[in-house]
Amino acid sequence: xxxxxxxxxxxxxxxxxxxxxxxxxxxxxxxxxxxxxxxxxxxxxxxxxxxxxxxxxxxxxxxxxxxxxxxxxxxxxxxxxxxxxxxxxxxxxxxxxxxxxxxxxxxxxxxxxxxxxxxxxxxxxxxxxxxxxxxxxxxxxxxxxxxxxxxxxxxxxxxxxxxxxxxx
Length: 168
Prior knowledge:
By secondary structure, this protein is mostly helical. Helix content is 65%, strand content 0%. The termini are far apart. The relative contact order is 0.17.
């Protein structure tokens, strides 16, 4: 029952109604949870793998279109800032993903719900689930609302400055 309520609440936050809620449940399931709940068969790791690729494709496309004069190296740097663990965890925290994550008791005691690595992984897994269930267009709309809205602040803050190129 708790899992069903969590799924409904998260879909409200995402503003996406999943056709197959099992995919969303999988995106929320950390591998540690499999040891404690035998009804959970699969962790979110495969969805994280898929979500990482979807994230890279859609982020690359967005910045390529948004900055037609930007050189390849700067595009790469900007993409790396947008898809890094800290940025994804920040978005996941804003969306309150941590409270929906299915964790083992030990992982929970260790602060798993606020662990930036776990939150970033969950973000990618949820994106993978959105892609599988709703398609690339919906995944793009999700990113446009929650991640791409930060592009301007990143480019104006100097955070996208390429220190490696300057050093060379």
